[in-house]
Amino acid sequence: MKIARIGALGSEKPVVVEGDQAIDVSSLVSDWNRTELENGGYEKVAKADLSKLARTPLAGLRYGSPVARPTKVICVGLNYIAHIAETGADTPKEPVIFMKPDTAILPKKTPFVIPEFSNDVHHEVEVLVKICKVGKYISPKFAHKYYDEIGLGIDFTARDLQAECKAKGLPWELAKAFDQSAVVSSQWLPITPKEFDSLSFEFHQNSVLKQHGNPTMMLFNIDQIIAYISKFITLKTGDLIFTGTPAGVGPIAIGDELVGTLNGKEMYRISVK
């Protein structure tokens, strides 16, 4: 079952997407949010008879954030060999994990504003995975049951601040987790485990291809990532995982237009202010 939130900013309604139509399920759940998802809202809607509920064509509708207030955004660093090489870092033996707060998510149809504390913000395009049910100590062979949709995002990084923190031997969360540092695509695509490795994604800066990749280039695949994270952190419905960036990261500037595509489909278009 594919869920979404449709409507004007701040007035989104929870829907189930079937084909080219959105089914309004606001009579069954108040929203696709943390409280509803943790208390069986997804399962309730999945079991319900939706045949008599209002349907609206998706064409022209605005997609809101996929889950209102995701419980957490979990990111994987140094997960593409070519990107590791361009950073000069050692190849990790286990996934490198860091987190962003929900305030890091850039609101839809909002330009990215370069923060005043950085003069060197970089783009990092990433495939996103949305967790669809609660899990802890998940085995890699069962990890594929914990996601069924993917998106595309950007992990904006204040590279100068990150370098300063590293030089002092300090954590560098501030360089990654600042407000609006995470772009999350408004659309999510259904995915099966067999389809995952055939994905391709691209990132264009002012119509110039800067980054591209596919999941086969990952050092740790998504099932390994989910299993590893769940050893330490309980995964909840609606959690977002940024799976790492390929080579080609670089600085952005005021006036830039940033476009990300997944399997040839435009997933976001962001202006830089």
Q: What keywords describe this structure?
A:
seven-stranded mixed sheet, four-stranded antiparallel sheet, single chain, Fumarylacetoacetate hydrolase, domain 2, 6 helices, 16% helix, alpha+beta, globular, 273 residues
Q: Could you walk me through the main structural features you see in this protein, from its secondary elements to its overall organization?
A:
With 273 residues, this protein is of the alpha+beta class. It folds into 2 domains: 2-57, no CATH class; 73-271, Fumarylacetoacetate hydrolase, domain 2 (Alpha-Beta Complex), CATH 3.90.850. The protein has 6 helices and 18 strands. Strands 5, 6, 8, 9, 11, 12 and 15 form a 7-stranded mixed sheet that branches. Strands 1-2-3-4 form a 4-stranded antiparallel sheet, with no helix packed on it. β1 (2-6) and β2 form a beta hairpin. The model has no long low-confidence stretch (mean pLDDT 93).
Query: What's the helix count?
Result: 6
Query: Any idea what the CATH architecture of the largest domain is?
Result: Alpha-Beta Complex
Uncertain regions spanning at least 5 consecutive residues = none
What gap, in angstroms, lies between the N and C termini?
Answer: 37 Å
Global shape: globular
Q: Hey, roughly how much beta strand do the residues contain? A: 25-35%
CATH topology of the largest domain: Fumarylacetoacetate hydrolase, domain 2
